[in-house]
Amino acid sequence: MEDLFENDILGRIGTQKYLCNITWRNGQFLMDEPENVGGKDLGMDPFSTLLASLAGCTLSTLRMYIDRKEWVIPEINISLNLYQETVSGELTTTIRRNITFTGEVTAEQKERLLIIADKCPISKLLKGKTIINTSLL
C-alpha cells in the first residue's frame, strides 16, 4: 500500500504539559488541552481537531458538488459536536453534524446534499474500519 501523503505528519511535545507542535507539508500548528484538564488551551484539542477535519472535508465536498451542479447556494455552514457512551461494554462515539445553507435550497437538493455529505473522505474514514499500526523506534 502507498501512503496518502508524500511527507508524514509530524508531532513533537516537550516538557510543557500537553502542548504539541504538529508539522504538516506547508506549516505548523499547536495542539493543546483545555485548562480544565491541565493544558493552557493554546491550540485546538485532539477531539476539536478531529471534528475540524470532518467539517472542512464536508464543506469542501459539498461546495464541489454544488458548483458542479451550478446551483446557487452562496454559503454552507456546519456545526459539529460529539458525545461518547459505553454500551454493552463497548465505547460508542456519536458525532452530531448539522449543515445549513443560505439561499433557496429545495427539498430534493437537500436530500441529495445529505447523501453527498456522507461521501466526503473523512466521513468514510470515520465510518469505516480503521487500523492503527503503532511501533516504538
TrEMBL record:
Q: Look up the domain of life of the source.
A: Bacteria
Protein name per its UniProtKB record:
OsmC family peroxiredoxin
SUPFAM superfamilies in alphabetical order: OsmC-like
Q: Name one Pfam family in it.
A: OsmC
